Predict the 3D structure of the following.
Amino acid sequence: MASPAAIREAPAWHRFTPGQRLARFAITLAIVAAIVASIRSIEVIPEFLVDAPEQMADLLMRMWPPDWSHYPSTVHEALMETIHIASLGTLLALVMALPVGVLAAHNLVPSTPVNLAAKLVLVSSRSVNSLVWALLFVGIFGPGALAGTLAIAFRSIGFVGKLFGEALEEAQPGPIEALTAAGAPWVSRMTFGYWPQVKPAFWSIALFRWDINVRESAVLGLVGAGGIGMALDAAMNLFQWDRVAVILVAIFAIVVVAEIVVTQVRQRVI
Amino acid sequence: MTAAALSSDFRLKRSLRARVALAALAAYVVYASMQMEVSAERLLTGLHNAARFFGRMFPPNFERWELLLKGMTESLEIAILASALGIALALPVGLAAARNLMPAWATWPARLIIVACRSFHPVIVAIVFVKAVGFGALAGILALTVASIGFIGKLFTEAVEEISDKQVEAIRATGAPFASVLAFGVLPQVFSRFIGFATYQLDSNLRNSTMVGIVGAGGVGGTLFAAFQRFDYDFVCAILIAIISVIMAGEIVATGVRRVFVDGATLGELFRRGARVPRERKLEQDD
């Protein structure tokens, strides 16, 4: 039992060491400084800011009532095209990402230069936004759904390949060693050793990416890469706000439907 | 029926279902590809274009670096302000949506706000704001704020719903008012996860702030789009290099912030050891 004097002399308890406190303070200070610097130098016209709620209300007024008759004539077709872009893009990405993912997994291809090269492919695919990929493919193949599909595919390679490669690296070595000991060739080791172990991860990555791609493919039309974004762009340029409202509702609906589909499929398959 | 026969019957059924699914998928691919108007001629022209395109992209041209720097600074400012505003607004909304703390009349409207903010891509929100408040950074800030409310609101709600009730009850039992229950019972339990979402959102806002300019909402995206339209592909290449390096720098900063606030690193440790990010957060990354 410590005497009262010893308790009094014991140093006060602190949650953080002085070093930790200094680090937390420095980061907080840097964040506040960044916010203040941004507020001071950003070019926002104050009149626009004051006017914003009024303008938003005006915009919503013009959107109401939505022009539903516009849906069967143009929006439906564009919406279907968006789904095709997302689905074909995802499939194409899966086909291209599987070999890259395998090359990136160190336990499958035990060669560090090959792993690094594969990872470089994956990182560069992920670092370029799908809109930029779309601009690129519109420049190459001209406007249309083909450019959108390729943009979605190239953007998704990095995502799918990275997660698939990580899943492969986390596979248990036991079954593979057993197959190797039995003299199984490479193909059998892949199909009976690795594939059953990474199958759930693979399907969940594919579904997750498809869900993201449905959202993203709705935007690509703004740069001319097909889908509902093109209908949105056309309606906005003509100030047909009642049509814009229909298109926004359609995008909202397709996103919700995609989420329901993904949840259902995930429950059934995985 | 023996167990072996049962399992082989089951396998047969499963493989039949898998084959039907595969055939349906193949039919869909053929049907959807036909909608794409792909032809050998078009692909050939495309390849030809691509070669010319990449030939003109290199070497990258940094001559107009002042324009590039101006756009990039604006993108950074948009990302910082939208993150700050979005996080500040997402906290009350996220708390109001937590079912274990709030009554139903508060959670439903809050959940509706979160779903509405999440369902549109930031760039689509950005065009609507461009039409509403005019061209410029303000539209970008507002659009990314909406996206941040949706994302952080959702994850924050989930985090709050997963907390342990014991600490909340202990503080309630002392007769503490609701604000104290939040401050001492709820927030300390979700703080480290919150730092994770916030830094992730800053990262995501940085990526998107370089893109919203394509629809006129400020930042380097406008410069990029203009360069594309003027066929200045060497300048396009320079802008892309700049964007990718800023995004990678942003990732390093975000990791540093997480290491200080979540792992309790000191400034010295921050610059010494390599950082590691937990796996569940990796899946959230990207989009």
Notes: Residues 3-43 of chain B form one domain. The CA atoms of residues 15 and 21 of chain B lie 10 Å apart.
